[in-house]
Structures are given as structure tokens and as C-alpha cells.
Amino acid sequence: MSFLDRIRSCNRWEPSDFVPFRLNGECVGHVRRSFAGHLERWPDIFGVTADEVTWVYPLEGFEERSRAMQEVLEGLVKSGLIGHLHGEQYPVTCGNRDQAHMLIDRACAPHFGVRAFGQHLNGFVRDGERLKMWIGRRSADRRVYPLHLDNLVAGGLPWGLSLRENLRKECREEADIPQDLADLARPVSAVTYCRDSTRGLKPDVIYCYDLELSSDFEPHCTDGEVESFHLWPVERVMETVQESDEFKLNCNLVIIDFLARHGYIAQDSPDYLQILQGLRSPLP
Amino acid sequence: MSFLDRIRSCNRWEPSDFVPFRLNGECVGHVRRSFAGHLERWPDIFGVTADEVTWVYPLEGFEERSRAMQEVLEGLVKSGLIGHLHGEQYPVTCGNRDQAHMLIDRACAPHFGVRAFGQHLNGFVRDGERLKMWIGRRSADRRVYPLHLDNLVAGGLPWGLSLRENLRKECREEADIPQDLADLARPVSAVTYCRDSTRGLKPDVIYCYDLELSSDFEPHCTDGEVESFHLWPVERVMETVQESDEFKLNCNLVIIDFLARHGYIAQDSPDYLQILQGLRSPLP
User: Fold this and answer.
1) Distance CA A168, CA B190 (A)
2) How crowded is residue A13: how many other Cβ atoms within 10 Å of its Cβ?
3) Model ipTM?
4) In what side-by-side order are the strands of the sheet with B26-32?
5) CB-based contact (8 Å) between A212 and chain B?
6) Could you give the CA distance from residue B261 to residue B114 in angstroms, rounded to a whole number?
7) What's the pTM?
8) What is the nearest CA distance from B96 to chain A, expressed in angstroms?
9) Distance between CA A34 and CA A46 in Å, rounded?
10) What is the per-residue pLDDT across A115-140, written as a single tens digit (0 to 9) for each?
């Protein structure tokens, strides 16, 4: 599968399957048409029509809204329409995190098509002129993508933690990278994509980092999320992205972005511009 | 001026001022409404209506089309509607260079709103953890942007030369960089933008390169296009982009892309995603 096909796999959704989720006239998400009707149970919180779901809850505060949303989510879990809550909060925003209107449980962000933010770190080692990358294999008991390949460190960005703080936390938990080393990670890019998942719409922003590691560094998983780590020549990583479905879907984009920035994608490839633009797809 | 404002300056054009320039149904460029009428002089080459300019020349070959276009351009220069020809040929394409339908003189690409391709090289030096960048000051006699600041190496990509060959040539001519050093330049990105210039529409693609140089390297201009070179701390380059109009317009984008890739633009800046997406604006 070409790099461009990988990017397309992360950008598959049919707008007519969803209606906008609006708050104060702003579109803050998208709800699947077939799901929108379930929100009619809360007429003081949602206005539901054939064309949109509107947040009509009269209390304006961030806390009040977040509480009302949490009440709805717990009701949806109780009636079996949502499988579980994650316990981690995400901001509801159509811009950056600091423009949030309220919070929503991470597991439910797709049901409301709310923008989600994550952080992925490319850990790499120089071997003369060549590069190697640390790749993790996800544990067998992970809820999503068990046993798939992953970036060295990757995680969602919960509310209440800065980018720096969360990266330190993920580095420690996922790969036993100490804080002074984590602080050397360079913020080098972001990839954006939007896809239809079982749970709903996922318009995601992944902040990307490069961390150059010495050849004697070895990662260890401390939170059980990763089964094993492997140091692969970048060419093997590239082939695995192209020729298998081994990587967790969105990790492909983070790696393609890494490959482009490090000179591994030929500029005269016919897809070059579409690849670069596709890594930063506009979010709905 | 913020980075985002710089990007917007390179993406200013009013679609209603232009009509599509079509060939075999494909839109290969855009012609300013006020200029389109001049093409009626060649009714066997152009079909001109209020809504579009169509290439109607009956001979299908690449050479035949290129010859007909050249005849038109010479006619336009003779009647003073176009100032000069450059003598270097650009491909007429709405995709990549290898999908070209014919050639057009470089100086006239904007009159037909044809996609143009260039190459810019960031020459940088590591000073411990900090970076310095080589910056050129354009000669006083340059036709465009005299005495403005420029990337270490920057040039248009003429027809008939590969990316690698042209980069070697520009490196040699503009900065006296020998071929073995030029070949270490890494293809790391591309920026795209589209703006209304005096001559017409410029939907441009700039392929970007990073070349790490040792502290004892010193560039010399061999073709007279650059007056002087300066090695600046990256922070000074960044300030100059933000606070002055010293850089040639499109060099700002190449530098902003460099800054992002090297970790100099904060990911929690409110503009971060718009900056990244703006560097790869869709071309018409």
C-alpha cells in the first residue's frame, strides 16, 4: 500500500452520514445520524433536528456544561449505547485546547465527533549516516490494536496537563525514558486526519516529536501497554508501513511524516505533494 | 507580523479576478480577466470567453504546443504586454513536472497562472545545541527583490534538469558549494502557496532542503546574484522573519518550515496547526 493510500485510510468519512454538533453557533463536532436520535432523551441539553444537534443547555459555565455532558454519557453507558467511559477528560473545541467549551470523557469524543489531541514520539538512533527507529509492539490485552506496532511513545493528551508535562508522563510510563531525556524531545510537526470509526468520527491532531537516542539506550515498558521494543533500520520501518497492516493506523502517518522530514521520501515521486498535504488534512 | 500573517501574504489572490486556463478539459492555469482579451489575437490557439481561456490549438504534440505558446509569448512581448522573456522553460502542468503538456517561458508562467517549481536550501551550522543559518543578501541589480535577504541557495527549476542536477547547479552558482557537499543536502519538505503578483497568478511549489555545514565552510557567490552571505543565530533569522520585510516573500515560508521542523515553533501557540497547514496550501 502506498504512503498516500495509508493517508487515505486515515481520512475516510462520509459527511452525509453525520450532522454537525453546534454550540453557540460554532460547529464543535459531528454526530452520526443514527446516533443523534438517542440524544433526544435530554431535551434540556440537546436540540436534535434532521440537520444538526445543538447544545441548548442554558447554564453557560465550563463546569456546568462538563457536568451536564457527563450526566448524558453515564446515561448512554447505562443504556448500553456507549460501551464504557475512559475516565480521562478531553476538551470540546473546534480550535486549540485552550478554546475548550467543556470536557468530554475520552472514550466518547468520537460519538460527538470532537477533535482529539495526542502526542507521538519518534525515538531514533544514528548509525553513521543511517537511522534506526525504536518501535513498540502493543500488549495483547490492549483494547484497541492489540499486538500492533506503535511509535516508541504515544498517548492521548488529557485535559489539565501541558504538552510538556504529558510527554514526560508518557515517556516515563511507556518507555522508561527519564525526564531529562524526555525534555530533549523536539516538537517537530503535527499530523491531522479525520476518519469514521465504529464509535463515531475521529478528527484528530497528533503532535509529533523526534528524540535522538544513544545506541546504549534501551526502552522498558513500565505500564504494561507495550509487550516489546525493537530497534529497526528505518528502511525496515518504511517497508512495514508500505507492505503490512502491522502498525496502529495513525502511527503510519507519524512515521510517514518522519520519513519525509528526514529525506526518505523522493521529491520526484508523483505523490510527493499529495503526501505532504495529506499529512495535514483540514479537520471538519 | 506573525508567522501566520507571513503565510497569508503569500496566499493572497481573488479567484473572481481570474478565469481558468484549460487544456483538454483540465485546468492547467489561470489568466487574469483583464489579460484574457489579449489572447483573442490567436483564435487558432486560444478560445476566449468571459468564463475561461481554452487551449484550442489542433496539433497535439508537446513540441508543437510549446512552439505555438512561444509564438504567442513573442507576440505579447512585441506589443509590450509582457516585459521580457527569461529564456528558461517551465512545464505547463497542474500536477507534477512529468505530467507537462507543453513548455512556457519562465517569465510568463504567472501570466497564464501556471504552476512553477523551485528549490530552496537551508544551510545551517550546529553550535552546540543551537543552530545558525546562512543567509544571502541579493545583489542590488536583481530584477526582483534587490537587496532582500534570501536562503543560502534558491532557484527556479527549469525543464530538462532533474531535481538533483538543478540543486547541484544552483549550489555551485549561488554559493560555491561543491557537488559532493551539495549531494549531502536532504530533501526534507515542500511549501506550496498561491498569490496574485503584478504579472499574474503564482501557484508555486518550493522543494526544501536542509544542508548541515561545518563551522569552517564559507559560501561564495559565483554568479553575481548574491551580494553577501551572513551566518546568523536562528533566533535572529526568526526575528527578522517576524519583524521586517527584509526576506524575499517566499523565503519566509521556507524558513518557517525549517523553524517548525527543528522545534522552534511552540506547539501550544494558538496558530500552530494553521501555520503547518498554511505551509502546504492547496494549489488551484
Assistant:
1) 31
2) 20
3) 0.95
4) B26-32, B18-23, B53-55, B46-48
5) no
6) 29
7) 0.96
8) 6
9) 15
10) 999 999 999 999 998 999 999 999 99
